[in-house]
Write a structure and sequence with these properties.
The protein is built from 18 helices and no strands. By secondary structure, the protein is mostly helical. It has one domain.
């Protein structure tokens, strides 16, 4: 039977997360900034002003916030699959697919390498690399549960990746013009470097309609790489658990998360066109709102003290990584 009393304990924390999400949505009506980042920042402010309310062990808000931060987020990611159409890959061509794959591998690898050079937390470095390399907040959220990343590191990486993407909306089109790219090349460039779908679309269409189209398709191609990336991370996690001689029962816990299977399921449905467009749009909107509630919950659980220890170094890593990502993609587009 469904344990109703268990879910009743989530009410306060869940309502607090929803309240932060509503405030964030309202604020972003007046400023051009990522709602996910705003939600995390507001959540951080509220969570630290009322620190004992959300962080104390006996807190009646904590379980609900944790539920929003993890369970709701996984549900939202599963629904995100409805935005992906596998038939898009057929429109990209081998050359563009190669640019996308090489760009992702390079960005994640350099994120980890820069983290080592600057002595940054390896998991935070990985999240910054994945966020930049794949699809921003969604990629960080989808992979953080597999790599066991802490809320603080999730929040920092999402905020920094979105900041780089916001800068990129203006920087990427300028660089494309400076490098003399055609509209098609400029579209591939913006789609292959900017972090969030909205950022890539905005940058692409600021150049031309043709660039906007290519930017959108290339960006969605990057998002599709989230599935193989998750499978690779699961394989690595299994290998690490075996090397650490953990209990067999512990090893068994590392498998393909159900939300990834549902993500693929919704992607297949979208690819086959089995649902009316109106229903697909509704599912997509529900996913976006639930994701925002989860981002708010992540913010509520972040402690300012932990942020201050790593944010400066993380900003350096994120900035250098984004610069390298732009240069590498420009090089690929110019030579391939």
């Amino acid at each position: 039977m469904l344990n109703i009393s268990k879910y009743k304990t989530y009410t306060r924390g869940l309502l607090a997360s929803i309240a932060v999400a509503i405030v964030s949505l309202t604020i972003t009506q007046f400023i051009s900034f990522s709602t996910a980042t705003v939600a995390i920042i507001i959540g951080m402010i509220v969570g630290n002003i009322f620190y004992s309310t959300f962080h104390a062990e006996e807190s009646r808000f904590k379980s609900g916030v944790k539920f929003a931060e993890k369970d709701l987020l996984m549900f939202a990611i599963a629904l995100m699959g409805i935005n992906l159409n596998f038939t898009m890959l057929a429109n990209l061509g081998v050359k563009t697919i190669l640019i996308i794959v090489l760009g992702m591998v390079f960005t994640i690898f350099m994120g980890v390498l820069l983290g080592k050079l600057f002595k940054l937390n390896p998991k935070l470095s990985l999240m910054i690399g994945i966020g930049n390399g794949v699809c921003g907040s969604s990629a960080i959220a989808a992979t953080s549960s597999i790599t066991k990343v802490k809320s603080n590191d999730i929040g920092i990486s999402i905020a920094l990746v979105n900041l780089m993407g916001t800068i990129g909306i203006f920087l990427a089109p300028f660089l494309a013009h400076l490098l003399g790219f055609t509209d098609i090349q400029a579209g591939v460039f913006t789609g292959n470097t900017l972090q969030a779908v909205g950022q890539a679309v905005a940058a692409g269409f600021s150049i031309s309609d043709e660039a906007g189209h290519y930017s959108t398709v290339v960006k969605m191609g990057r998002v599709l790489l989230l599935v193989p990336l998750v499978l690779i991370l699961i394989y690595i996690a299994k290998k690490e658990s075996q090397n650490n001689d953990e209990e067999v029962s512990q090893k068994a816990k590392i498998g393909v998360p159900s939300f990834i299977l549902w993500f693929v399921f919704f992607s297949i449905i979208a690819s086959l066109g089995l649902l009316p467009k109106e229903l697909e749009t509704l599912i997509s909107s529900v996913s976006q709102y639930i994701t925002l509630i989860a981002m708010s919950a992540i913010g509520l659980m972040i402690h300012f003290g932990t942020i201050m220890k790593t944010a400066g170094t993380a900003f350096k890593v994120s900035s250098i990584l984004f610069a390298l990502q732009l240069m590498f993609s420009a090089l690929l587009i110019s030579t391939l």
